[in-house]
Specification:
Elements (H helix, E strand, L loop, with lengths): L5 H10 L4 E2 L3 E4 L15 E4 L4 E4 L7 E3 H9 L4 H4 L2 H17 L23
Antiparallel strand pairs: 1-2, 2-3, 3-4, 4-5
């Protein structure tokens, strides 16, 4: 995870409970659309690998960098306090390495087309 251990507590103090930490995301209350509401689940997903977030609430859909989130909560950017830039770079390098080593082979098999039924679909 690219965030300092105190980041989870910061989210709990700033946005309220519950704050759930999953493998790839931290899920919490969205300060744009869910602030002050009591629900069983919330829609703001913060990536644990990159300093980005997205609200999956149908009326909201706000997304951006973690700096934008801090500006909304604090009124200023305090991301350097909680984001480990070296870990962000490490995740980015690993992602590039994986993409370079992946070879995707797609074999497309097209079924025969009955030319009498699909005259506009036949390749000339």
């Amino acid at each position: 995870m690219i965030y300092d251990d105190k980041f989870i507590q910061y989210l709990k103090d700033s946005l309220g409970e519950p704050v759930r930490v999953k493998t790839k995301n931290i899920i919490c209350r969205c300060p744009w659309c869910e602030f002050g509401q009591k629900k069983d689940h919330y829609h703001l997903y913060i990536s644990t690998e990159y300093p980005i977030f997205h609200c999956f609430h149908s009326d909201c859909q706000v997304s951006g960098t973690i700096k934008k989130l801090f500006k909304k909560i604090e009124g200023k950017d305090i991301s350097e306090k909680y984001v480990d830039i070296e870990k962000v770079k490490e995740y980015a390098k690993e992602r590039v390495r994986v993409q370079e080593n992946e070879t995707i082979i797609k074999n497309m098999i097209l079924p025969p087309i009955n030319e009498n039924e699909f005259k506009l679909k036949v390749c000339i």
